């Protein structure tokens, strides 16, 4: 698409040294990913030294937008560093719990409320994407069926963007002044396998793409019916890995926790 303004949230969880990046291949991969952060408003490179198993404390923006990226938890949940897809590190979300308290945790991106919201697309084109590896499904909680990967805005609010796995099936929901557009895949993803899920609003059309990052087949593509219209979030928090409230806290009752690993998130407004 023709990009007039570029806003990218790139979660490329790598490190420049230490236990997680101990070879030349991993370091080269991190440097290649770091090139993507140049000139963007929001880019999270996670280029500090990390140790797998340590808690993820949050992140600092390498781009130009004024944001705060923190971690919120509930029920004993936590985010930890884990080996990534390309030799660096990634974020491990809480494991599934069939009984007892549901552990939950998410990364939350907040914008500066005293300045114009840099992530309000309005009627402009929009791309949202995430690399993920889902855990195998575990029976126990029938309501645990909407694993959130990336979300901004809640259902019923004036605007929403969401990438999720519903019973393992990828879907994208965009909502705005003209209503909602929901694009859904045909079947569940394979557990413990890396995928890249991307949702694109270009003009009046919405397209979802799923790429198997461990295979050679071309990406699968689905088209949505309708145009969500203008999407204005007015500084609502953007969450990664679970659902949060307008105040950036994990949603009570069901946080729609994603169980697995996340290595990259992209939000591109143009």
UniProtKB/TrEMBL annotation:
What does UniProt give as the signal peptide span? 1-20
Tell me the InterPro entries matching this sequence: ConA-like_dom_sf (IPR013320)
Q: Which UniProt keywords apply?
A: Signal
Q: Does the keyword Signal apply?
A: yes
Q: Check the record and name the SUPFAM superfamilies matching this protein.
A: Concanavalin A-like lectins/glucanases
This chain belongs to the protein called Uncharacterized protein
